[in-house]
Amino acid sequence: MKYDPQSLQSYWMPFTSNRDFKSEPRIIERAEGVYCWDQNGHKIIDGSSGLFCIAAGHSRPEIADAVHAQLKELSYSAPFQLGHPLSFELAARIAALAPPGIDRVFFTNSGSESVDTAMKIAYAYHYARGEGQRQRFVSRERAYHGVNLGGVALSGMVKNRQAFGIGLPGVCHMRHTWLAENRFTRGQPEHGAELADDLERFAATYGGDTIAACFIEPVAGSTGCLVPPKGYLERVREICDRHGILLVFDEVICGFGRVGKAFGAQSFGVKPDIMTMAKAITNAAQPMGAVAVDEAVHQAILNAAPGKSIELFHGYTFGGHPGACAAGLATLDIYRKENLFERGEQMSGHFLDTMFQLQDLPAVTDVRGYGMMAGFDIVPGDVPGARGLEVQKKLFAAGLHIKMTGDSGIVAPPLISEREHIDEIGRILREVLS
What we know:
Elements: H1 18-23, E1 28-32, E2 35-38, E3 43-46, H2 49-52, H3 61-73, H4 85-97, E4 102-108, H5 111-128, E5 136-140, H6 149-154, E6 171-174, H7 197-207, E7 211-216, H8 232-243, E8 246-250, H9 264-268, E9 274-277, E10 289-294, H10 295-304, H11 322-337, H12 340-356, E11 364-370, E12 373-378, H13 386-398, E13 400-401, E14 403-405, E15 408-411, H14 419-433
Helix pairs in contact: 3-11, 4-11, 5-10, 7-8, 12-14, 13-14
């Protein structure tokens, strides 16, 4: 199907060069499994699972049927002072996947909402314990924590915050963990655990009792797959414990098998106090996010509220939507029945082998990876990100979609991928990057 450029003008596209796109549109009209088809019938392998969210592959009929059945039975129930069965069932299923003790689940509609919700829960927890002076948050350079104002304040990617003010005051950013001496490291790098000491330095500078929470992506995803150095997450956990700081893992990308186990917390053996999630929670068939909270945090907030009063004055009209819950339950069924987390772990070796074969190309300056996610950097052009956009367009023309952030590429194929799909991704990457 051909599109008149004028028919595309009304939609202001997110995180897109709108002028460039609308002069040369790339429109996906259908998708199935690991492939998409554009308006010209061109077949494209999805090398980034949409935006890291199509873990079980595109257009799963089991999920569509579950949502359809639910919408015919109950299309909406107000989430304030009312409930519906699927929200309780999905919360219990998510709690069973999370690390022990992180068993209270609050539903949102996106990863951005999950991050802002986690920030408010952190505020409420310390307020309930008589430590309302804890108003400061710690994040990291090159961090991505969504696009709501709280997440923008946490963001360590300059273009995500440059035009939007400070969001929230009092956010400190630890150094990111990319180091030149760790180039072309597969898995966790050897160098950089000491970078966690930035958190200790902030505690000494501002007072540990002023910091509410530290937000960390177990693997920093959107910035180009920055894998934590050995011992780094453990050291962050120790510093948080020393100063009474809540540790929040942003699992929006890492969650649901992307880095091996159900969540990055289990893959790296470090338990946070709060986890945010979204994306693959419904295989992207319906918008949904969630925040999983340690029982001790949850209980402190409940115990501080008198009688039968509302304990947390926060929520969303569509939080725990029946259709989204139906999609979430059907998605978790697929993950379990098809052993997709285990399958991703087993495929990781071949996937990382394929990605690290790119390191001999002159255009590639680094490759990193863990589980079923990898990043690579290319030699930049005169304008940061311009070459990355050209690479993305050339890859698409060659039959591959991946996520480019600036001059970094992120590859994260669906967990249903077979070896031949990984080989196809590697072949197209090599052809274009050469």
